[in-house]
Amino acid sequence: MLCALMDNSRLTASQLAITAGLSPQSTSNHLAKLIHCRVVAFDKIGRNRYYRLYNSLIAQAIESMMVATYADNNFQERLKPSGFKKMCYARTCYDHIAGHVGVAIYEHLCQQKVLETAEGNLAISTVGDTWFSTHLGIDVNALSHSRRALVIPCMDWSEQSYHLSGELGAQLFSALLNKRFILKTNEARILTITPAGKAFLQRSLGIHNIDDE
């Protein structure tokens, strides 16, 4: 159930029951415990409750546990040719982009000094302020007022390397969606990179290894 909510979606108890293969009663019991522990929250709309992860920190904790689960190299090789291939290529991780594409974006942002390490912490460089404004229309200074950390390196379970999280990661994902460089699919968490998106990544970041899923 928690993995089903990792794309920052809001699902009913019935939808979660089907996803997890549980009875309605068992699902209700699990949700009650998760709500009590502040892992899951819900929004009530009319008569329905729509469940979601409590916050981005919970999503980060779930991703960290998945990193440990899939850390074995042999398992990685078995995973990628399987039905998880699309998931490994590009997916949502709560409100930011993960998988092969997400990691490639993060690595190239670092290589081009858009992101840099300052006093042991990852931060946006002066070059980065201009880059995000010019290429994606993101006002980095406006994001600094957010209570959420601006830049967070999030360990990717399928790539065993970092992708970009934090407020900037969320805004980057939103901008790529709005420009239709990436698209959500009917499959939970799975993303598609459009031809325009691949051209943008090649032009703006020099990413040439975004193979088809």
UniProtKB/TrEMBL annotation:
Q: Which SMART domains match?
A: HTH_ARSR
Q: Please give the InterPro entries that the UniProt record associates with this protein.
A: ArsR-like_HTH (IPR011991), HTH_ArsR_DNA-bd_dom (IPR001845), HTH_Metal-responsive_Reg (IPR052543), WH-like_DNA-bd_sf (IPR036388), WH_DNA-bd_sf (IPR036390)
User: Which molecular function terms from Gene Ontology are attached?
Assistant: cadmium ion sensor activity; DNA binding; DNA-binding transcription factor activity; lead ion binding
| Boundaries of every HTH arsR-type domain copy | 1-73
Q: Taxonomically, which superkingdom?
A: Bacteria
Q: What is this protein called?
A: Transcriptional regulator
Q: Write down the PANTHER family for this protein, in alphabetical order.
A: TRANSCRIPTIONAL REGULATOR-RELATED (PTHR39168), TRANSCRIPTIONAL REGULATORY PROTEIN (PTHR39168:SF1)
PROSITE patterns, alphabetized: HTH_ARSR_2 (PS50987)
**SUPFAM superfamilies documented for this protein:** Winged helix' DNA-binding domain
